Amino acid sequence: MEAVFRFSALILAMIVFLSAAPAAQADDGFAAYGRGDFATALKLWTPAANAGDQTAAFNVGVLYFYGKGVEKDHAEAAKWYERAALKGNDKAQSALGIMYSDGDGVERDLFIATKWLQLAAEQFDRAAATKLHSVEAEQLDLIAQKILGRPGSTVPKPERLKLAAEHGDIYAENQMAYKYVDGIDVAKDDVEAVKWYRMAAEQGDPTGQYNLGMMYVSNRGVPPVAKGILTSNEMMGYTWLLLAARQGHAAAATVANGFSNTEVTFSAVQLGMVKDAVEQWKPTAFQEPSGKTP
Q1: 162 by DSSP, 3-state: which?
Q2: Cβ contacts of residue 136 below 8 Å, gap of 6+?
Q3: Checking phi first, is residue 231 left (phi over 0); if not, alpha (psi -120 to 50) or beta?
Q4: Among 86-100, 184-198, 266-280, which stretch is predicted with the lowest mean pLDDT?
Q5: Contact between residue 151 and residue 143 where contact means Cβ atoms under 8 Å apart
Q6: Spatial distance between the Cα atoms of 228 and 10, rounded to a whole number of angstroms
Q7: Distance between terminal CA atoms of the chain?
Q8: Sign of the four-CA dihedral 39, 40, 43, 49
Q9: H-only helix segments in 183-287
Q10: Backbone phi, then psi, for 18, in 5-degree steps?
Q11: What percent of the chain has pLDDT over 70?
């Protein structure tokens, strides 16, 4: 299912496991890796990674994961992958999602796995998309077993999806929203779509945050913001986009960075309000839907 407002920006080139970083130091690290001098590659990539280079951070993670030039350490690899993933690196997001789904180097957590795999899949990472399907199949089965007392495979797919969404599965929540945006098996309904995006967004899911932000800036399915520190739909949308971007959502970062080039402009006071809202925001625990649209 294609997400509403999905962008293909920031797709990163990759050679085998590694992507060539733009900095000269990182390029030297890639050359060292190519000739099998992994210790030198690690020495060159680590400063670049610490300086914020997402590709170098991913490459350092690869070295730790496979034990090249350093003792194999999957927990350490996960830390470096997360650094790169938070900056939008799709390969790091994919690797980290798979590690969380398998409990490899990190405690197994299907919720976190789904978050990272969704982000990577949205950047067309095939490994992430494949793994996401298997993780969701397991998650749906667990939810059906818990709620209905029987395997998910015995429940028709549309019912499974809604059941999972109603019980806090972020992937299912986003999929329900997409159905209402596109009118798949249901009548198009932006208000209903916003309800499901909001459920995912408020749980801290960057995909839900991105799509909810885009609904706000497009004034689709959302009521006017009449009170509170965020005084317009554009400000509310910008806030959600920034929240998604800081979790590594590449498209959200692209839109947020280009916001000043649109017809929407904010005063210094308004920008301060948005910054405060982002800094103060915390995810909320999942609550069963009331049936009312927000």
Answers
A1: helix
A2: 114, 169, 171, 172
A3: alpha
A4: 266-280
A5: no
A6: 34
A7: 24
A8: negative
A9: 190-202, 206-217, 233-245, 250-257, 268-280
A10: -115, 150
A11: 84
